[in-house]
Amino acid sequence: MEPTFHWNIKQIFVYVVALYKTETNPKNHVVLWDKIIEATDADKVIQKDNVFVKYALVDQSDGLRGEEIELQLMWDHMPITGLLYMGEQDESSLSKFTLPIDYQ
């Protein structure tokens, strides 16, 4: 994340979003994990393995059973002054998986 920081960046808000479709809602985004990286932090690298989600992946009904989920990394540049800039991982490189139909 080092090249992202410059004189006008106070912090970067990084988050992972689950994207999925259901019959009733064709576009759903649920934040599963987030982290704030301050400009004053010595280590500005995010390298995580086997991270447990901070926020549950739930839907209003049983709409997630058997559905394909895509995970996308997104971030917000929070400047000292000026406009907030938002960025996201390219859609061609998203991680995908299918949830089970039955849960134990």
Keywords:
mainly beta, 104 residues, 5 strands, five-stranded antiparallel beta sheet
Approximately how much helix is present in the residues?
A: under 10%
What is the overall silhouette?
elongated
| Helix-strand string | EEEEE
Structural class: mainly beta
Give me the number of helical elements. Answer: 0
What is the residue-mean pLDDT, rounded to a whole number?
Answer: 88
Can you characterise this structure?
Strands 1, 2, 3, 4 and 5 form a five-stranded antiparallel β-sheet that branches. The chain is elongated, with a radius of gyration of 16 Å. The mean pLDDT is 88. It contains no helices and five strands. It has 104 residues and is an all-beta fold.
Provide the fold topology.
Layout: E1 9-20, E2 28-38, E3 68-79, E4 85-88, E5 95-98
Antiparallel strand pairs: 1-2, 1-3, 3-4, 3-5
